[in-house]
Amino acid sequence: MSEYYNPNRGDSWNYGGKNWKLSRSKIDLFLECPRCFYLDNKLGVKRVPGFPFSINSAVDYLLKQEFDAFRVKNEQHPLQKEYGIDARPMSHAELNEYCR
Questions:
Q1: 78: pLDDT confidence band, cut at 50, 70 and 90?
Q2: Closest Cα partner for 100 from 69, 55, 68?
Q3: Could you state, in order of their start, the residue ranges of all structural domains in the chain?
């Protein structure tokens, strides 16, 4: 936790100190989480970074693989059939350039 908390940070770097500056990112932090803003700017406790989009990336990858399989067979995906979508995954020469 030492990378997120700096107990030796002087008051001049905290809110109201001579080195403290209000930035767009600090305003965004306040609007998103006033408590996080207070902890960062008054107590010197940095916000822990968010989680990466690993689940989103995994779902995206799996869906692309699944639709690629139906694209090769020139068939509709079962969900397209189930929801009455009259379409098939399209094949295009530049598809890999835009979808990867």
A1: very high
A2: 68
A3: 1-50, 54-99
What's the chain look like in SS3?
Answer: CCCCECCCCCHHHCCCCCCCCCCHHHHHHHHHCHHHHHHHHHHCECCCCCCCCHHHHHHHHHHHHHHHHHHHHCCCCHHHHHCCCCCCCCCCCCHHHHHC
Q: What is the pLDDT of residues 22-56, one digit of tens each?
A: 889 889 999 999 999 888 888 888 887 777 778 88
E runs forming strands in the chain: none
- Residue length, the chain? 100
pTM beyond 0.70: the answer is no
In angstroms, the CA 81 to CA 75 distance is 10
